[in-house]
Amino acid sequence: MPVPLMQRTPEPELMESEEQALAYAAADFSAGDQALIERLLQLFPAGLGPQLLDLGCGPGNISFRLAERFPAAQVLGIDGAAAMLALAKRALAERPALQPRLRFVQCCLPDPSLSGGFSAVVSNSLLHHLHQPAVLWQALLQLAAPGARVYVKDLRRPPTAEAALALQQCYLAEAPAVLQHDYLASLHAAFTPEEVQQQLQAAGLADQLQVAALDDRYLEVWGQLF
């Protein structure tokens, strides 16, 4: 008999502990972060426009890289976890040259008070945290301007628990225990490309955004809104 595919197990939406925040801030995600920026340049060679939004920014890794790579743009990073944002704001305090163009705001989606009009919306590893994934796509419709460039990258749920454990052992074997635990939980909480396609259909975005598997553990969603 075929082995049944692993069902999704949601994880906590927010990383609220200081231990988690410090572990993520200390980890070296530079290769993946830079790969995301390079992918943006590949997908959108004309640039991202003047107002960039990083949804679920965590300690600000991608936000800082966006501000550095697009020096004419204003960048806003938002996250629901105070511990993560405290690290982002601390890092920004040490980089005065970026302060006029980069800021961080704490909020949890959905948040009707957030102002829209962003020329690009980027999100890295937020989707799998959301208990209701429609929240991300609703926020995108709320916050993106017409013609906005969109890029979402997230983990992709493996077919079995054994495959998830193999990925953890492959990529985080030497990482602190908290990161190993969270990574495995995130793989169990992630979506498949087929599930994300259904989410886009339900949000009315399937004709504007496309989704595909990316290497052995990620998926990506990209496009330009009408």
What does this structure look like?
Helix content is 39%, strand content 21%. The protein has helices at 18-26, 30-43, 61-69, 82-93, 134-143, 161-171, 177-189, 193-203, and strands spanning 51-55, 74-79, 102-106, 118-124, 144-155, 209-214, 218-224. It has a 7-stranded mixed sheet, with helices on both faces. The protein is globular and about 45 Å long.
Q: What keywords describe this structure?
A:
single chain, 226 residues, alpha/beta, Rossmann fold, globular
Unreliable spans are: none
Structural class: alpha/beta
- At the fourth level of CATH, the homologous superfamily of the largest domain is Vaccinia Virus protein VP39
Helicity range: 25-40%
Largest sheet: 7 strands, mixed
Question: What is the molecular shape?
Answer: globular
- How much beta, percentage-wise? 15-25%
Radius of gyration: 17 Å
Pattern of helices and strands: HHEHEHEEHEHHHEE
The overall number of domains is 2
CATH first level of the largest domain: Alpha Beta
Distance between the termini: 46 Å
The tally of helices reads 8
Q: Mean pLDDT, nearest integer?
A: 94
Number of strands: 7
